[in-house]
Design a protein that fits this description.
Length: 150
């Protein structure tokens, strides 16, 4: 991916999906009365919204509807942080929710790292590496929570 606007369009879609999904997981953890994990998921949703706003501002998008509707190059045909969320239901326990979140964040991290490694555009490389560093922090936090909740 060699155009900064194209990269940022991808980042906006990815982060919008991530925020929505973490909001869902936070609500699910509220029903399990697990305030600690709920708070982490809400924090991750907020981080995703911040990344979303940053990417939109850098690209000059004023509204998500300004984004192109096609032309995305997702690894598996959909945004990386759109993990198999069909598993979010009333029977999902805290460990399963954390594992689902970890899978999602790891996919986002892998996506940004692959862009950073594969782009010929120095600006795209730098920004993708920056986004990857932030995703790596989320992955580490989820590993820590999983270790405490197993």
């Amino acid at each position: 991916m060699n155009g900064i606007r194209k990269f940022l369009a991808h980042a906006v879609r990815l982060e919008a999906e991530s925020a929505r999904r973490f909001d869902e997981l936070a609500e699910h953890m509220a029903t399990h009365c697990n305030a600690e994990v709920e708070a982490v998921f809400r924090q991750f949703a907020d981080f995703s919204r911040l990344h979303l706003e940053d990417a939109m501002a850098r690209a000059g998008f004023r509204h998500i509807r300004d984004l192109p509707q096609d032309g995305y190059e997702w690894p598996h045909g959909e945004p990386p942080e759109a993990a198999p969320w069909w598993g979010v239901d009333g029977l999902m326990d805290v460990e399963a929710a954390l594992r689902l979140a970890l899978e999602s964040e790891q996919d986002g991290l892998d996506f940004y790292r692959s862009i950073a490694a594969g782009s010929a555009d120095p600006l795209v490389k730098a920004m993708a590496a920056e986004f990857a560093d932030e995703e790596a922090e989320h992955v580490a936090k989820l590993h820590e929570l999983l270790a405490r909740n197993e």
